[in-house]
Amino acid sequence: MKPLPPLLLILACLATPAGHARAFPDPGQKPAPGNEQPQVPLSQAGYRPEVNYQLQCAGCHLPQGQGAPANDVPNMIGFVGNFLRVPGGKEFLVRVPGVAQAALNDEQLAALLNWILRRDGIAGDSTPADAQPYSADDVAAIRHRMMDNIPGTRAGLIRAMRDQGIDINDGMPASTP
Ligand code: HEC
């Protein structure tokens, strides 16, 4: 198309009604049809643990829990339950930032950890057969206690596992002796 001559262009701009100038986001905008309900926060949505896992955890831990050791995310498959075999490990699993700071309430987090730790799930038989499940109260009691030195704490727990003869298959280069 041929460009408009300059005078015509100026006239075209002046003729544009001021109402056409749009504010973003448009405060008067209506939701798309079928989307009128306000969004429900995840902590009130009542999803199953496996759905919460995909929404809140899988971005780092990947869909099956295989992790991404190159990005410092440990493998959990067949391993994560070993934390329940060493002193302080049960607390550690609640206090890692991805868990403690998830957009989930205490009950949902307890259910999610219990789901990850199932012996027919991600943790497999790394979880001791007599492990006590987390309750919402367990999570509430420790979730908000910040952990100062996460890598140091984790390394100590891994050492304690190794002292028990546990095979450290978390995929992390730092855990290779
Ligand atoms: C931003 C990335 C990220 C997200 C999101 C995340 N994690 Fe993690 N997670 C990590 C990293 C990295 C570690 C290793 C310890 C550390 O550095 O915090 C870890 C450690 C863990 C551990 C301890 C296992 C171990 O071997 O150290 C558990 C259990 C865990 N995460 C569960 C979860 C759950 C459940 C969620 C979702 C509610 C979640 N994480 C969300 C990155 C994440």
Automatic annotation (TrEMBL):
Region annotated Disordered sits at 22-42
Q: Does the keyword Phosphoprotein apply?
A: no
- Extract the GO molecular function terms from the UniProt entry: electron transfer activity; heme binding
Q: Does the keyword Oxidoreductase apply?
A: no
Q: Which residues form the signal peptide?
A: 1-23
Keywords on record: Signal
InterPro entries associated with the record: Cyt_c-like_dom_sf
Source organism superkingdom: Bacteria
**Protein name, please?**
Cytochrome C
- The source organism is Alcanivorax dieselolei (strain DSM 16502 / CGMCC 1.3690 / MCCC 1A00001 / B-5)
